[in-house]
Amino acid sequence: MSNEFVHEIKVYYEDTDSGGVVYYSNYLKFLERARTEMIAFIGLSNKKLLDKYNTLIIVKSCNIEYLKSAKLEDKLKIYSSIESINKASFVMIQYIKRNNELIIKAKLKLVTVNESGKPIKIPSILEKQFAN
Fold first, then answer.
1. What are the pLDDT digits (tens) for 28-64?
2. Would residue 74 show up in a list of annotated catalytic residues for this protein?
3. What is 5-131's CATH number, 3.40.50.2300, 1.20.1740.10, 3.10.129.10, 3.40.50.720?
4. 99 vs 22, 38, 57, CA distance in Å?
5. pLDDT confidence of residue 128
6. What 8-state DSSP symbol labels residue 117?
7. What is the pTM assigned to this prediction?
8. What CA–CA distance (Å, rounded) separates 96 from 98?
9. Fewer CB near the terminus (10 Å): N or C of the chain?
10. Does pLDDT of 1 surpass 70?
11. Contact partners, residue 126, CB within 8 Å, separation at least 6
């Protein structure tokens, strides 16, 4: 995987409030979609991670800074990169930009767990992809 993954989305009516501004919690959905697409880009999926590696990736913490608002029909780019990896967790930095203007900054700690919610070692296939 390259150092940074980019996912593009368009803001739909369902993402906004009555004024056409993206509702703040929907940015978390946008970030999640970008993480899911990043996993797909490296040839995996959340379902495959669960079925084949008994692994779920969960968000342990999220620090998000709202710099500017996105609006109805804006085209957004979400940039995702791995900042660090340890045995059972990794830190991801995500940015959302509109026309190269930074509107959202987020730093997340993600943990790999089994179906019971117990932290487990990151599968080597995932760790190798993240390390590249």
1. 999 999 999 999 999 999 999 999 999 999 999 999 9
2. no
3. 3.10.129.10
4. 16, 21, 30
5. 87
6. S
7. 0.93
8. 7
9. C
10. no
11. 42, 44, 49, 53, 55, 112
